[in-house]
């Protein structure tokens, strides 16, 4: 198989009739010689902020001199984004080689692995072959039964911000979701949690106590903001003065505080991470579709917020940067998300609302239904566009050179918009 055929092979395998569990992933990896057992990990679960946290941490570890693997999902534009070593995406040739290598093992199994299980196995094999010193590993869904959880005890388990999402799989309260995500905490590791609702922290603390694991809680109150603009932001953290990150979302400060607490935990495990590595790693972090500025005239912000907590964080960033200025929102959502709550957060800040549908037919809420909801809830001007490109061009034309556009609602939507701007260039 060539590169495109290899991707077609992986993407043709659906979740249909597959119960969540670790058995299939474990069987596949055993057939492959258990590559996952030859690596060290920082394992990251949570509802929001996983990718940004993982990207910042991987950048710092790279600057500290460690050969660092980074595994994240989903990809925004190209499949290869999911697997990075020292900030570089895996090559097309490596993807093709690894999928061809895995195929006979997958087909020898009693029950076929799912798409995500194959993708995770690809990552383990890639990072093993490249002899990574450490892998920053993002959970796909949940934690306890996620295919990434086949790994032995990580160096550090991380729990980011938790909110109601994927409730049909993980539970209908944040505490139940926290318990599922705490399934990545194993005896012998350290655990670091984002500072959040006390009942969530208590769930995680109980799991840590049961596994004799030391718990670290991030200290976002130690963040002192100094400056923020569309290029990034500057803040102090304890004795570290004027730290800079090239990520403009206000919420990234709290993610940075979590990362700095992870560094503290790693230092207790004899990892040599200098203050300069922290400073340079944060400065060099790039993470697409998280309050990303893709145009400056007009300002066009792309954000993958796709649940109420994520959208609320985006709104906070917009008001911090633009005050009471009304925004043109280009919105596409999944029908299985709490889109009504998200829309109610957006409406008070909207000058205009353009409804589109992400390119994911089985899950996307159609543009007509979304437009009707907004019309029912407010008097804001509403448009619907069947073609996303028409929606983007309408937003750009209506904004003029001094307006502000924010595209939000789904990472699938973000990927489609990124492709539009890439093609324009």
UniProtKB/TrEMBL annotation:
Gene Ontology biological process terms in this record: folic acid biosynthetic process
Superkingdom as given in the UniProt entry: Bacteria
Family matches, as Pfam families: Mur_ligase_C (PF02875), Mur_ligase_M (PF08245)
Reaction(s) this enzyme catalyzes, per UniProt: (6S)-5,6,7,8-tetrahydrofolyl-(gamma-L-Glu)(n) + L-glutamate + ATP = (6S)-5,6,7,8-tetrahydrofolyl-(gamma-L-Glu)(n+1) + ADP + phosphate + H(+); 7,8-dihydropteroate + L-glutamate + ATP = 7,8-dihydrofolate + ADP + phosphate + H(+)
The protein's enzyme class: ligase
Domain Mur ligase C-terminal residue range list: 290-410
Involved pathway(s): Cofactor biosynthesis; tetrahydrofolate biosynthesis; 7,8-dihydrofolate from 2-amino-4-hydroxy-6-hydroxymethyl-7,8-dihydropteridine diphosphate and 4-aminobenzoate: step 2/2; Cofactor biosynthesis; tetrahydrofolylpolyglutamate biosynthesis
Record-level GO cellular component terms: cytoplasm
Keywords for the protein's UniProt record, in alphabetical order: ATP-binding, Folate biosynthesis, Ligase, Magnesium, Metal-binding, Nucleotide-binding
Names of required cofactors: Mg(2+)
EC number(s) per entry: 6.3.2.12, 6.3.2.17
UniProt keyword annotation of Nucleotide-binding present: yes
Domain Mur ligase central intervals: 44-260
PANTHER family referenced in this protein's UniProt entry, alphabetically: DIHYDROFOLATE SYNTHETASE-RELATED, FOLYLPOLYGLUTAMATE SYNTHASE-RELATED
Summary of subunit composition and partner proteins: Monomer.
Name the UniProt record assigns to this protein: Dihydrofolate synthase/folylpolyglutamate synthase
Organism lineage: Bacteria, Bacillati, Bacillota, Clostridia, Lachnospirales
